[in-house]
Amino acid sequence: MLIRGPVAIDKRTKDLAKRIKPGEIAIIDHIDIDEVAANSLVAAKIKAVINMSKSISGKYPNSGPQILNDNGITIIEIQEKNFLDKIKETELIEIDFDGKIYKEDKLIAEGIVLEKKIIESQMMMAHENLSQELDKFIDNTIEYAKKEKGMILGDFKIPNLKTEFENRHVLIVVRGKNYKEDLLTIKSYIDEVKPIMIGVDGGGDALLEFGLTPDIIVGDMDSVSDLCLKKAKEIVVHAYQDGKAPGLERINSLGLESIIMPSPGTSEDIAMLIAYENKAELIVAVGTHSNLIDFLEKGRKGMGSTFLVRLKIGYKLIDAKGVSLLYKGSLKIKHIWWLIVSAFFPIGILIYLSQPMQHLLRVLEIRIKMMLN
């Protein structure tokens, strides 16, 4: 193995994935590479990943490294803290089969290549540790639920929006696992019902990918594009409980109007609360985070707010995450043949009942008999 290519550097994988070019080598600092990050790098068609953190720490089974490996993208882990002092953006490097990294034929770092066997071994250990993480997660969830119960008791003011929610369906999109497949599966529902569309940060761009314009963007504005923000009809900036809103500066710099909503929990939680409190008839969620692995990949130690919000919304919430898996199947050859036979069946009857066709078939029958005799 010898990999050559220019490098693209960013400690935030999701930011790097937006600008890295096909054939480049990604240099990241990402502990426990998650599925969404891995898929974004695969989509960018990169050659390799140099990670300055543990790609699988062993706390939980994160699937990112396996996804990269399955798609032929090599992962090299390095421990050298001063590595970034030796390399700059767009510089050309070479990586050999031992994980040694060269620049202009000079060795600048040595790493460990995460081969398939190593990934499988580390994932097995991570699965064994999952029960311990689950125990901690449950305790933290209960603790956070005590602190964040105000979300469902009405302690947090829901902003007044221009969009009319009452008796309408609301589609909330988060750019999470299988969001593309799920959006494609429910596309006919979207076209027919025309729900209010809320993009949670990058979920707004997910809607744009399908030719849909988000009515509202909710989030801290760290992963949504400027184009999406400009197209959205309304923007709700998720702020800390003390009122500080890091994403507000970006909105102001774009000259856009927004509403600030201080609240604990996640941006997708408050998106659901906004829809519910404004009397939406039904809330359909795509790509949202709702299980242990989702939250651990997001770096959260508990899901108190999400648990409480879902408890409050109840039957009005339909989680469409993974709905595309219900429709997976393949068109078999025998189905095609049956379709052809079915199509020709009525044609055959018409031919049989036609007088001229009967004469023609009789002549052909005689001809065949003469040839065989």
Automatic annotation (TrEMBL):
Residues 321-371 form the SteA-like C-terminal domain. Keywords: ATP-binding, Kinase, Membrane, Nucleotide-binding, Transferase, Transmembrane, Transmembrane helix. The chain crosses the membrane at residues 335-353. This is Membrane-anchored protein. It comes from Acetoanaerobium pronyense.
